[in-house]
From TrEMBL:
Keyword hit for Protein transport: yes
Protein name: Transporter 1, ATP-binding cassette, sub-family B (MDR/TAP)
Family, per entry: Belongs to the ABC transporter superfamily. ABCB family. MHC peptide exporter (TC 3.A.1.209) subfamily.
Entry's localization field: Endomembrane system
Organism: Labrus bergylta
């Protein structure tokens, strides 16, 4: 017979019904067989054999029935089948091992009541598997065994696990404090058990007033333990939060240190705001989550453990009932809650659409008015609001259902416990005080488990979020190894030999900025580098500062490759003052002595005088202690540039690079600064970059760059005589502006 999809659908509808019918038939057939004289003397063998027969027949049916559900033939389905068929033999065997009476269980397992009970147990087991309770417990076990010991876990690590390991690394120096916190958590959680425990004792005393001291004793103990627990909690919180602040500070410090050591290209690719957010916001979020949620998780875990312990010691049967009921308590509100959330999201989307209509209408008000369509727009808005109202009604119903389901399931569990507890009290297995204590424990237990389930994923998420921080901490800067050269005397002879370079770009193809550039910058001379904007002048300077590496060719300093010099030495010998020089939001003194903490005030005054900055600094409100920073600074753009020049000169560099350094100065000051600089840096190699031809014409040698290549070079006079690119630039700068028509008139 060909099975059409319709036939298959019908068959699958009947699958579970047939499954239950078959199970009932098998159970009753086994029951009849059990009564046969052959099996009467081997009840346990029969019990297990019956379970096996049941499992095999049901599995064969599940695997072969054409409309069988895929879940039933999956591992989880077969696992549940195993629970259904073998939980009772296992339970009965356990009773037998514990020396408990088993006759009722052995001969009564096929009753209707027991069969239904079996289905409930299987359902609870399935809920455990399908929820993350088990995975949560397992992953805890895995974490605490592998992380503290530093051992490798079996599975490949996920991000959260590796981030947690790193975090624990930061916590390790404070292991003593964490140990103390843990002890305080344990003692304080234990103290919290006093109220339910002694309330039970008081209930016992009410029933049986024969021991008059028992009441006073119970109340006294309860009070002392509760106060003790509160005091310990206070100290624990204090110690935990201060320790976490220490951890936070050391993470922040390390991130800052790692970022500052990255290559310059890294700062080109990562906006400053993003880097600052990594150091501040991300670390703050992580530490807040850890301080708040991890501490709550710890508290509730402590409470959970003690509650479980006390509940088991009170009555293991009632504890088992509570544990079986908990998954139902979680799952039903979760299902109704997710339905509510789904509708709430739809309501939000609908509201956003209504807002969009309003925004669009008001922003195009003139168009609406000129087409006299006010009523049309009002109608459109109303239609949108009607949609929102329809969804609102659904949301209200879903919310009510979710709250109702929540309280009903909790109530149902409590009623079950009270009913079962009541029967145990009637049988005399537990006292009524124990039942009171148990009910109070159970109340706290449900909320502790719920809190653990809520905070655990949040803590995991926060730890996983810290992954970005650790990514930065793990990043190795792409910088060639530091050189070893640091000669006592340096001539300052710079050579670019066939240098080609393009800026590293993440996605797009990078275009070459320098193409086969060869330059010879003679020691002790003034060399000017000129060219149109974006011709690559500043790039040459950045390569000299070793911010980037040439792709081809090499740069020599005194005949030796630049990368062979020590980084610190190089930056002491080469001082760069650029147009976009930045002063820090600190005093003028700190700015000039930047990076040279042992420089004397005399050195500072000398450098300031050479940069023509001393006089104006002395006139500032607080002299050298005036704030020179970007914000709130009292110094103008030109003055800032002269302070930046003083900052460069205090190092007595061998090579001075002025990259449009005087562009913010008026002609008078520019002349003064240049004159002072050139007079006082006689033994220095000076590389002068300027777009002003009047500035560069005094240079010993002029190199003209055009679109990343050397166009021409020579002295000012030689280049003028050549009448090429440089001569054209000089001409253009000396020619005034005029309108085209006027040009025509002029020529007439
Ligand atoms: N950090 C960077 N990342 C990517 N491209 C860059 C970077 N810095 C400069 N460039 C590009 O390199 C080219 C050369 O720039 P450079 O600043 O060296 O020219 P310049 O001659 O000094 O120009 P200007 O006179 O305008 O300062 C330009 O196209 C510029 O956009």
């Amino acid at each position: 017979m060909i099975k059409t999809p319709y036939t298959m659908q019908k068959m699958s509808c009947f699958f579970y019904l047939l499954f239950v019918c078959l199970d009932v038939c098998v159970v009753h057939a086994v029951r009849l067989a059990q009564l046969s004289p052959v099996f009467l003397s081997y009840p346990f063998i029969f019990l297990w054999g019956g379970g096996l027969t049941r499992a095999v027949l049901l599995a064969l049916f599940a695997l072969n029935y054409p409309g069988s559900s895929p879940w039933m033939s999956s591992f989880k389905g077969l696992q549940s089948l195993g629970v259904l068929c073998f939980h009772f033999p296992a339970y009965t065997s356990l009773l037998w091992i514990l020396g408990q009476p088993t006759a009722e269980a052995v001969w009564g397992w096929h009753s209707w009541e027991r069969v239904c009970q079996g289905y409930v147990v299987t359902l609870v087991a399935w809920l455990y598997w399908s929820q993350y309770v088990l995975s949560l417990l397992l992953s805890w076990g895995r974490y605490f065994s592998s992380l503290w010991t530093g051992g490798a876990s079996e599975k490949p690590e996920d991000n959260t696990s590796s981030s947690l390991k790193r975090l624990l690394g930061y916590m390790r120096p404070y292991v003593g404090r964490f140990g103390a916190v843990l002890s305080l958590v344990i003692f304080s959680s234990y103290g919290e058990m006093a109220i339910p425990q002694y309330t039970g004792r008081v209930a016992d005393w009410i029933q049986n007033e024969s021991a008059p001291d028992a009441f006073t004793e119970a109340i006294t103990r309860m009070t002392l333990m509760t106060i003790g627990s509160a005091v310990l909690e206070f100290f624990c919180d204090l110690m935990y939060n201060t320790t976490m602040s220490l951890v936070h500070t050391s993470v922040q410090k390390d991130v800052f240190q790692t970022v500052i050591k990255q290559e310059i290209a890294y700062f080109d690719d990562n906006p400053t705001g993003e880097l600052v957010s990594r150091i501040t916001t991300d670390t703050n979020d992580m530490s807040e989550a850890l301080s708040e949620k991890l501490s709550l998780l710890m508290w509730y875990s402590g409470r959970f453990s003690f509650l479980l312990w006390f509940m088991v010691s009170q009555s293991w049967k009632m504890t088992l009932l509570t544990c079986m009921g908990l998954p139902i308590i979680w799952v039903i509100p979760k299902l109704t809650g997710s339905f509510h959330q789904e509708i709430a999201a739809k309501v939000q989307a609908s509201l956003a659409k209504a807002n969009q209509v309003a925004t669009e209408t008001f922003s195009c008000m003139k168009t609406v008015r000129s087409f006299a369509n006010e009523d049309g727009e009002t109608e459109r808005y109303k239609r949108q609001l009607d949609d929102t109202y329809a969804l609102n009604k659904q949301e209200a119903a879903a919310y009510a259902a979710s709250t109702w389901a929540n309280s009903m399931t909790t109530l149902a569990l409590k009623v079950c416990i009270l009913y079962y507890g009541g029967t145990l009290v009637t049988r005399g297995t537990v006292s009524s005080g124990d039942l009171v204590s148990f009910v109070l424990y159970e109340l706290q237990f449900a909320s502790a488990v719920e809190a653990v389930m809520r905070y655990y994923p949040e803590v995991r998420k926060a730890i996983g979020g810290s992954e970005k921080i650790f990514e930065i901490l793990d990043r190795k800067p792409v910088i060639p190894e530091d050189g070893t050269l640091a000669p006592e005397s340096l001539k300052g002879h710079i050579q670019f030999q066939h240098v080609s370079f393009s800026y590293p770009k993440k996605e797009e193809q990078s275009t070459p900025v320098l193409k086969d550039v060869s330059l010879d910058i003679k020691p002790g001379q003034i060399t000017a580098l000129v060219g149109l904007n974006r011709s690559g002048k500043s790039t040459c300077v950045k390569l000299l500062e070793r911010f980037y590496q040439p792709e081809e060719g090499q740069i020599l300093l005194d005949g030796k490759p630049l990368q062979n010099y020590k980084d610190q030495y190089l930056h002491e010998q080469i001082a760069v003052v650029s147009q976009d020089c930045v002063l820090f939001a600190r005093s003028v003194r700190e700015n000039i002595k930047y990076g040279l903490e042992d420089a004397t005030d005399e050195d500072m005054y000398r450098a300031a005088k050479r940069a023509s900055a001393h006089d104006f600094i002395m006139e500032l409100s607080s002299g050298y202690d005036t704030d020179a920073g970007e914000k709130g600074g009292q110094v103008s753009g030109g003055q800032k540039q002269r302070i930046a020049i003083a900052r460069a000169l205090i190092r007595c560099p061998k090579i001075l690079i002025l990259d449009n350094a005087t562009s913010d100065l008026d002609p008078e000051n520019e002349y003064q600064v240049h004159q002072a600089l050139l007079n006082q840096t006689k033994d220095c190699t000076v590389l002068l970059i300027s777009t002003k031809m009047s500035v560069v014409e005094k240079a010993n040698h002029i190199i003209v760059l055009n679109e990343g290549t050397v166009e021409e070079e020579g002295s000012h006079d030689e280049l003028l005589e050549l009448d090429g690119f440089y001569a054209e630039m000089v001409r253009k700068q000396n020619t005034g502006f005029h309108r085209q028509g006027e040009e025509g008139n002029d020529s007439q």
